[in-house]
Amino acid sequence: MLDYDKIVITIERLERRIAERFPNSGLQMVVKDFLMISKSSKKNIEWISRPHFILRFFSYFIILISFAALVFSISQIDLKNDLNTITNIIQASEALFSELVLVGAAVFFMVTIETRLKRARTSKYLNELRVIAHVIDMHQLTKDPGMHDHHNLDTENSPNRELNTFELQRYLDYCSEGLALIGKVAALYAQSLPNEVVVRTVNEIEELSSGLSRKVWQKLIILNEMVGRMERKQKKRKVK
Prior knowledge:
Helix 1 packs antiparallel against helix 2. The model has no long low-confidence stretch (mean pLDDT 81). The chain is built from six helices and no strands. The protein has a domain of 163 residues: Glutathione S-transferase Yfyf (Class Pi), Chain A, domain 2 (Up-down Bundle), CATH 1.20.1050. The relative contact order is 0.12. It is mainly alpha-helical.
């Protein structure tokens, strides 16, 4: 099982590493927000995990009243006088069927109300993680490994490319780590509430973070290939 405390410690360490390498950067602010969301997730997950006995008692009380009302309605039927004709039997059957449907709907509503409340609360916090993933993606969007050393080709509205090769590698690494950790925090909710809707939402977030992380790693591969080519050129020059 995933350990909440270890995941938070990893996020804290990532935030400190970014602060040391890129102080006051937008990426640091995003990861700091992610850290705050992750810390608040502990209370949310504990609330989702534990049974809510007051809500259950209220649900069972409403169900008991519904069945009592149904039994009372049936007891009011006079079998000799009210069911002496086919028309009366049909009318009584329709009325009884309608009451059974209403009672069944009430029972279903009250039995599932706790799960639905937990699912709604979980969906709210999972959506926050989804937003964080997109924000991290926005920060790496302009980090183009093919252009970061070509400042002479910049236009007036070109993005700021002050990072050198090593710094760009670290920046992209941090983005990839942050996206991976988002999937892990989301998985904590599925671990606490293995509801079909929650699990599907968590899987969507994990697929999203994995897809965005693949984009980052494609940039890292391109960057590493560029570095390799530059090193080979330098060696050839030294040999000459």
